[in-house]
Amino acid sequence: MAFVHRVGFVILLFMVSYCMCKRYEPTWESIDSRPIPGWYDEAKVGIFIHWGVFSVPSFGSEWFWCYWRDKKLRPYVDFMNKNYPPGFTYADFGPMFTAEFFNPKQWVDIFASSGAKYIVLTTKHHEGFTLWGSKNSWNWNAVDVGPRRDLVGELATALRSDSNLHLGLYHSLFEWFHPLFREDKANAYKTNYFPTTKALPELYDLINTYKPEVLWSDGDGNAPATYWNSTGFLAWLYNDSPVKDFVVTNDRWGLGTICNHGGYYTCADRYNPGHLLKHKWENCMTIDQKSWGYRREAVLSDYLSTADIIKTLVETVSCGGNLLVNVGPTHDGRIAPIFEERLREMGQWLKVNGEAIYNSTAWRAQNDTITPALWYTFRPQEKAIYAITLSWPSNGSIILGEPKVSQGQTQVALLGYKQLKWEPVAAGGLRVYMPQLSPSEMPCSWAWTLKLTGAS
């Protein structure tokens, strides 16, 4: 018997060693076989940060340069003609990206208070300006121009010193006006001067220098993944990089890869399918509904309310996704009070209802058949079903049509309050009697979670 135990132990060690030593080949079949590291699915909530030179004009969109110079859209042309002298170039905005009020510890405090578990910072958007001293972006980076600071490094240090947040870095593959990219594009991507001399060296630099736990790729420029050597880079990332065991990546690695290849799927900006997907996915969305970057001309109605954000969070997690909530800081490094308010209020909600969000999985039903504005999550370790209602019932009770209940076994509690009375209904499911509470007695202000145990 002892010999059998020893043999079993040796086999177990072999299996663990084999899993740890698996090598990924530079093919999509092999790359796609890599499991998503568990921490990411457990996290559920992240913060996206769009910050760059586009934060200086802070008008219209983070695509300001492209819309003004390339597409010559009238609002952008008029804005420049009205506010800047003739001959003013986009490069002239660089020294005006000052970041003098950028306080990374303050940022981390806001992000941690939001209840998020990871952040994703735009280290380089399509304009090509890098927020670290990239050797491949000479004189168009935050160390050589403007702040003259390593903004990526400062935020990474603050994050790892003062929080349990995971560090994520966004990187745009292409750049609108880089001459080497434009040359490759004119050659129908038969040449690859830009990836080999600019994009890929920057990616390796980001990984080796800052060791992010999320790498958020974007901006393929309609070029195929073979042009970007995406599978070759990802094979290195998963096999040999300093973050190989815990890094998570998305699906934006070349024309046609989105929603098909890579790590978790993003599918589209502000993607919210409303039903369960077979693959892990993320809903990246904005508090300012019209832009990812900061806009000075935004009005209050442009911003999602806290109720809107929580509704999107509940729907996303119920359908198996993570929510990445975007804010756009100002050119001088401030997170505007309206963004801070929304994030802190989301955190207040998660303090009460986080049990239904973090470490949860999708249940067999996503929303209820009888009460549509009610969404489900599940925690297998506790065998608990969570029903999150987006509106407090006006008649004092709410019907849950999906759970199968048992008298004497099923218990229902309102998170942040206590156990509630319930009764079965003839059509199946149960009617839960909600307590009569004054606003000050409510466990939270926006959506409310019922925890069911002893149900199936």
Structural overview:
- Helices cover 30% and strands 16% of the residues.
- The chain has helices at 2-20, 28-31, 38-43, 64-70, 74-83, 104-113, 151-162, 179-186, 193-210, 225-228, 230-239, 306-318, 337-353; strands at residues 45-49, 118-124, 166-172, 214-218, 248-249, 281-286, 321-327, 374-379, 384-389, 397-400, 411-414, 419-420, 422-424, 430-433, 448-453.
- It is globular, with a radius of gyration of 24 Å.
- The protein folds into two domains: 27-354, Glycosidases (TIM Barrel, Alpha-Beta Barrel), CATH 3.20.20; 374-453, Golgi alpha-mannosidase II (Immunoglobulin-like, Sandwich).
- The strands form three sheets. Strands 5-4-3-2-1-7-6 form a seven-stranded parallel β-sheet. Strands 8-9-15-11-12 form a five-stranded antiparallel β-sheet. It has a three-stranded antiparallel β-sheet with strand order 10-14-13, with no helix packed on it.
- It is α/β, with parallel strands linked by helices and 456 residues long.
- It is built from 13 helices and 15 strands.
- The two termini are 40 Å apart.
- Residues 1-21 form the signal peptide.
- Its EC number is 3.2.1.51.
- Alpha-L-fucosidase is responsible for hydrolyzing the alpha-1,6-linked fucose joined to the reducing-end N-acetylglucosamine of the carbohydrate moieties of glycoproteins.
- One of its GO terms (biological process) is fucose metabolic process.
- It comes from Clupea harengus (Atlantic herring).
